[in-house]
Each structure stands twice: as C-alpha cells, then as structure tokens.
C-alpha cells in the first residue's frame, strides 16, 4: 500500500467511526461528511469556475473547466448515503471531471432524507436533467451531448434516473458513469460480508439504518427506481462502472455490469486494486484517483464522439 493510499484509508477510518455514531445527529453528520475528501488541501482546489443556478426548481451549480463546451453537459449527482453530501463538498472532483470530459457539469443539490424520503431526490435529479437538456451555462440553449454521472448514493440515483427518464419518454443521456454505486437494497451481494474487514468507510450495519431513514414505510426494496439492478437495462445508454476492490459494494458494480451485458448494454467495468469507496475524490493527491478520472474522460469523450 502506497503512502498516499494509507493516508486515505486512515482518514476514512476516522470518519467511519464518527459517522455511524452521528446517525442520530444529522446536522453534525452532514458537516462531517463534507470533509470526506479532506485528506489533503489539494483535493478541494477547484479547477475552473462555478456558480449557483436554479435548474427548473432544483438547486444546483454549474462547474466549468476552461476547456468545457457549453453544449456538452454532464449532470453530476453527489454521494452521501441519500442523507448527506452537497455540490460544495464535491466541487474539486466535479471540476476535474469537467476538465477530463470537456463537459460543463451541472452538480445537483437534490433533496435529502429523512426530511425528504425516496423518491424526492430521484425526482429532483430527473427534473434537473430535463432542465439541462434546454439550458446551459450560458443560458437557454439546447444540449448537443449529455452525460449523467454520480457516486455512491449518487451512483444509484444516476442509474435510477436513466430508468425513470426512459419511462417518461425523455431523451436519454449519451453516456452514464456510475462510481461505487449501491444498486440492490436487498443487500445480498457477497462482498458486503467478504469485504467488510477491508472497507475503511462503509460498515455493513449501516444499511439497515439507512433504509429506515431513506425509505417510506412499505416501500418495495426491489423497485428498479430504488434498486436499479432489478430494472430493464436493454435500452440503457453506454455505461461505465468504477469501483475499488476494497469496498463492500464491489459486487454491486460487478452484478450490475453482468446484467447490463446480458441485456445488450455497452458496459465497461473497472475494478481498481486496493482502492476504497469513491477514491476518485482524492485527486490530485492520490495517483489512482487521477488515473480513474482520466479514464472517465476517455470513456465520455469516446462515447460522445460516436453519437
């Protein structure tokens, strides 16, 4: 394990111990999660410009690297277990994704549970994407190319949003990137147990607690809008899944990739050795994070060039 990787693991281990204890103190937990990527000051340096925007009634911000094309637009959905996280805490990562992909990034500040349970956040993401189709960083203008990207809970919402947008008849994005997503609320993936001793940030015990916070009473946990693994992926856009092999969610990505491939989806799965949950946010400090973001950029630019 490299010194940088060890520093990230030690940082996340410290957050995990406090984050689980703070599930009953959500304001404090949300403040803690804002420091998720704070292993080094460089991770929060913004490589571009940003400003707030009302995305059709949904709070959001544009994050734009100087090489981004205003008609190439990527909606980013942050992680945080559906109960925390914000565009502000992700600004360093979204700016690097903007540069790597050449897209203007719309980072969505969707409503969080438990104040707003499922499907409120999902609806916000879909509404923001519809708005983005006709509105860019320079004002009202049609998008030429679109992408949806998200991590963790946001990776879940990215996949679910595509399924819902397709059901609504909204034009699908040209590509989708899902980083360390949760895709199965039955929590039946083997790695939830087999990787529990390696994952520095997610303890399996948190899943039951999160269900109580995020889901309304009586919710079917196999609903594809909640657990996209159970959705119809036959018309899904080109999909990139990135996951670390030190994650309890490792098999979530593997199972999603397997099903997508079986149903005819153009899907790529990248498993990164020794990497923890959403390691991409530790760029530029962590070398693997830099390479993963570069891979996202290559995937997106390749797929956009084909459409």
UniProtKB/TrEMBL annotation:
Keyword list (alphabetical) reads: Hydrolase
> Keyword Metal-binding on this protein?
no
Name the Gene Ontology molecular function terms of this record: hydrolase activity
According to the entry, every stretch annotated as the Alpha/beta hydrolase fold-3 domain falls at 74-280
Q: Which domain of life is it from?
A: Bacteria
The answer to whether the entry has keyword Hydrolase is yes
Which InterPro entries does the record associate with it?
Answer: AB_hydrolase_3 (IPR013094), AB_hydrolase_fold (IPR029058), GDXG_lipolytic_enzyme (IPR050300)
Name any one Pfam family assigned in the record.
Answer: Abhydrolase_3
The name of this protein is Alpha/beta hydrolase
Organism of provenance? Leucothrix pacifica
The record lists the lineage as: Bacteria, Pseudomonadati, Pseudomonadota, Gammaproteobacteria, Thiotrichales
